[in-house]
Structure formats: C-alpha cells, structure tokens
Amino acid sequence: MFITIHARLLLVPVIALFILQGCGNPSQNGKEEKLAVQQAQQITIIEPSHLVTQQDAEKILGEPVKKAVRTEKPIVGLKLCMYNPVNEQSTSFLQITLTQNGFMLPEGTSTASIYNRLKKNFESTRTDIRDLGDDAFIATGGLYILKENCYIMIAAGNINSEATRTILMDAGKTALDNLSRLK
Questions:
Q1: Which residue of 8, 83, 137, 176 could cross-link 65, Cys pair, CB 3.0 to 4.6 Å?
Q2: Where do you find CATH 3.40.1000 in the chain?
Q3: Distances from the Cα of 16 to the Cαs of 11, 23, 155, 167, in angstroms?
Q4: What is the 3-state secondary structure (H, E, C) of 15-43?
Q5: CA–CA dist 168, 27 (Å, integer)
Q6: What is the DSSP secondary structure assignment for residue 53, as one 8-state letter?
Q7: Which residues is 83 bridged to in the sheet?
Q8: With left for phi above 0 and alpha for psi between -120 and 50, is residue 42 left, alpha or beta?
Q9: Using one digit for the tens of pLDDT, what is the confidence trace for 163-175?
Q10: Number of CB atoms found within 10 A of residue 44's CB
C-alpha cells in the first residue's frame, strides 16, 4: 500500500508536466505579449537607439562604434541597445536601457515604480543628480533617469571614474534631448 501511494503521487507531477507542455511556445508567447501591449495601448514605442544614436555614441565615447546590439523584454517594458567600439582593444562601451509604460503588459508595474524601487535600493550609495529629467542618480551600474513615463538607465563602465561619469552625463543629456524631440 505504501509503495502504491508513492507511485500515485509520482504520477501527479508527471501528468502535470505533460499537460503544461502544450500550453504554448515560449518564443511565440513573447511575440504575442508584445503585440498585445502595442495594440491595447496604441502608444508610440521609443527605441533606445533613438535616444542615443550610433553617431551620438561615437561622439560621446570619442571613437567609432559598431551598430547597436538590441534586446527587449516586453513583460517589464524594457528595450536595450549596446554600442561596442570598433577597436577590439578598446574597453569603452555605451549601453542604453529604456523602460516605458507603453511597452509594458497592461497588468505590469509602472516605470516610476521600478525607478523608485531602484532608487530606494541604492539609498546609501547613490549620488543624486539635479536638473536631469524629472529625477536622476548615479549608482552601481550607471546613470538612472526618470522622465515622464520613461525610465532610462545608461551604463558606460566603472562609475568611480570621472571619465565614465562625464560619459554618463553627456549620454543622459543627449538621451533627454532626443526624447523631447520624439514626444
């Protein structure tokens, strides 16, 4: 009897696994989520490469960069572009991450909520920045900016380096200037 009970209990997760395998293709679900967000909200989605273009990145970094590598996570409204230098010996890079309400799932959290949680997490280690967006700070990872319904994060290397901080500020100002033209 004891062995029979264990065998039945083992069947429950195995059957559940077979049933759940038919619940959808993960690669299709991401596409469907993205489409649902865009259709439901009918909002213009901004690309991070429009906030800091390849030409902007080259000017800010002071060297040629490759075409942006782009990724996105619709479930959290995140789009990312990464500019790497053409010179393989260079350690420079510029990463622009943009989280926007218009790209999030309708039941998702807001950009302001994400930004404010991060700001609170970095409370003892951040440097607050005035006159940049609605709110901004530098902390581990880079420059964090909240502007209206957009949360922008810019990374360029070690934030303890004055040169990196200058790059972050230049990229932040460029991103906000371009954002104002896009809206």
A1: 83
A2: 48-182
A3: 8, 11, 43, 51
A4: HHHHHHHCCCCHHHHHHHHHHHHHHHHCC
A5: 34
A6: -
A7: 94
A8: left
A9: 999 999 999 999 9
A10: 10
Angle between helices 162-182 and 54-61 (to 10 degrees): 160
Q: Retrieve residue 59's tokens.
A: 């000017």
Copy the structure tokens of residue 175. Answer: 């991103």
Which tokens hold the place of 24? 């959808």
Q: What amino acid occupies position 145?
A: I
What topology does CATH give the domain 48-182? Protein Transport Mog1p; Chain A (3.40.1000)
Give residue for tokens 């053409």.
Answer: 86
Rank 23-37, 70-84, 139-153 by mean pLDDT and report only the highest: 139-153
User: First and final CA of the chain: distance in angstroms?
Assistant: 69
Residue with tokens 């890079």: 93
Q: What is the chain's length?
A: 183
pLDDT digits (tens, 9 = 90+) for 112-142: 999 999 999 999 999 999 999 999 999 999 9
What are residue 155's DSSP bridge partners?
95
182 token code pair: 């896009």
